[in-house]
Specification:
alpha/beta; 19 strands
């Protein structure tokens, strides 16, 4: 089942559509509470003896929390419910309270809770919270600091479900999103802890009728990326030409080549500034090296040889670089990936670049600042409207846009959106994007589907960053560690998720 990444309005629309179609509102609440309780019982068995404090608000998020309390009590856990904002308001939440209070009769007192359940505020938060809610939020965070595991229902209280803004915000160890993944949680990973998306019975309505991005996961990558056949040779695995590496920037194309080699490319040729040819050839003996093809005679054998071009890593932004990119895009009509300076040389000219791409299989891989330059827009405007910016750029270019994150957005010219939330701050260093570009180019030529290639590349690159951080540390891991981890990430050996979990993302942003 695809998981959608939604705004607050998107989440409300999906709930409303399910209820309008005949799904009982209380049954959704009950399913949500049971799903969260099941996760707590499985992952934190100390709750059976030490118990839980459940902090319930007055809205439906509080109703979900009351259901959690009732389920834990029926499993013999000591449970205390605090309702600092008053009694529930909705009929469903009041029913949840009544059922829970029946189960809570006679349960043991809670002394030092193993778990604190945050059900104070839900997706309705927009702007500063009231003082009573702020006091409750600080109290939950304090219990977490004292050793309890803080579990947030749907999202940490105080957080805007769309933007991630808000203060104070509960600092959760585990956030259980209900039915859909709230995009605000992906923008505040430091506060949400581990992220799970749980099935609550929305059914087909979880997909919605809007263009909300699909969350990329291991199952999509396994299905999308073809296996390498038993009789494969270097030609079957395809040939990649990388054009970049201006004087003093030989490292960028080499990192791209290593990313491609770690992702299954058959042959790689690096075309760099004359002064870098010897450097590249000695540092990367697995690849061929040559100078930039500056004339039609020099470029013909390169284009006859290549199956895919990657333009841009370390290319530079001078007039020679622009002329080289234009000439290659005119002469070459096959699949292409444009990264870094191959985009920067078209500052403010996305339509010109789109005309040169001409509708071929293509992926462009800007970070937000590069996207802002292409669109002639302030960086703040792109960051505030990432989905709209990526979609506009994809339509203008007629190419798939991989807008780097975190999280990473993938936009197709026809309006489809996907989002990859794998990765850690390990990837926030120079050269990481070059590695990613090499992965994208490999998958583009092996799948010939730019949208699929960009999704799979973003996911596996992020997973390599996660594995590198686990094997080393966030501070101690280098791109060499990421490249080593990339080889392991391609095993795609993630175990299937057990019900009710639809998606799982690790805690990010707290490790040193």
């Amino acid at each position: 089942m695809d998981v959608r990444v939604v705004s607050a309005d998107g989440a409300r629309a999906r709930d409303a559509a399910a209820i309008a179609a005949g799904i009982d509102a209380f049954e959704l609440m009950r399913a949500a509470g049971h799903a969260v309780a099941a996760v707590i019982l499985e992952r934190h068995p100390a709750v059976r003896t030490q118990g839980a404090v459940v902090v319930a608000g007055t809205g439906n998020n509080g109703g979900d929390a009351w259901v959690v309390a009732g389920v834990l009590a029926r499993h013999g856990c000591p449970v205390r419910v605090d309702a600092p904002l008053g009694p529930p308001r909705s009929p469903e939440a009041r029913r949840a309270q009544a059922e829970a209070e029946e189960a809570l009769r006679g349960v043991p007192a809670v002394q030092a809770p193993a778990v604190v359940v945050d059900g104070v505020l839900g997706i309705g938060v927009a702007g500063p919270v009231r003082e009573a809610a702020a006091v409750a939020i600080r109290a939950i965070t304090a219990m977490g600091a004292a050793g309890a595991v803080v579990v947030a229902v749907d999202l940490p209280s105080g957080m805007d479900a769309t933007t991630g803004a808000g203060a104070p915000v509960v600092r959760a160890d585990l956030t259980c999103c209900l039915g859909t993944l709230k995009c605000g949680t992906l923008l505040r990973r430091d506060e949400v802890g581990e992220l799970l998306v749980l099935e609550i019975g929305l059914g087909a309505h979880a997909a919605g009728t809007d263009a909300a991005p699909v969350l990329v996961d291991a199952a999509l990558v396994r299905a999308a990326v073809p296996p390498i056949p038993a009789d494969a040779h270097k030609g079957v695995r395809r040939r990649l030409a990388i054009i970049g590496g201006a004087e003093g920037m030989a490292g960028a194309p080499m990192l791209a080549a290593r990313g491609a080699m770690r992702s299954g490319i058959g042959m790689t040729r690096l075309l760099v500034a004359q002064s870098n040819v010897a450097v590249v050839q000695s540092a990367l003996p697995e690849a061929m090296a040559g100078r930039w093809p500056l004339t039609e005679e020099e470029q013909a054998p390169v284009l006859d040889w290549a199956d895919v071009l990657l333009l841009g890593p370390g290319l530079g932004t001078g007039t020679k670089s622009r002329a080289l990119v234009e000439r290659l895009l005119v002469a070459w009509r096959g699949p292409v990936v444009l990264d870094a300076d191959a985009l920067n040389v078209f500052d403010g000219e996305p339509r010109m670049l789109g005309a040169l791409l001409g509708g071929r299989p293509a992926v462009v891989t800007p970070h937000p600042a590069e996207a802002a330059r292409l669109l002639r827009r302030d960086l703040s405007a792109v960051l505030a409207a990432r989905e709209a910016s990526a979609t506009e750029l994809a339509r203008t270019l007629g190419a798939v846009v991989l807008l780097k994150g975190p999280p990473t957005l993938i936009a197709a010219p026809d309006g489809r959106l996907a989002l990859s939330a794998t990765g850690t701050p390990v990837l926030g260093i120079a050269g990481s994007g070059d590695v990613l570009a090499g992965v994208v180019a490999t998958l583009l030529v092996q799948t010939l589907d730019p949208f699929i290639a960009a999704q799979a590349a973003a996911w596996v690159h992020g997973r390599a960053g996660e594995r590198a951080a686990t094997a080393r540390s966030v501070r101690g891991a280098t791109l060499s560690d990421v490249l080593d981890a990339l080889a392991e990430a391609w095993r795609l050996d993630e175990a299937p998720l057990a019900s009710p979990v639809l998606a799982a993302l690790p805690s990010v942003g707290r490790a040193r």
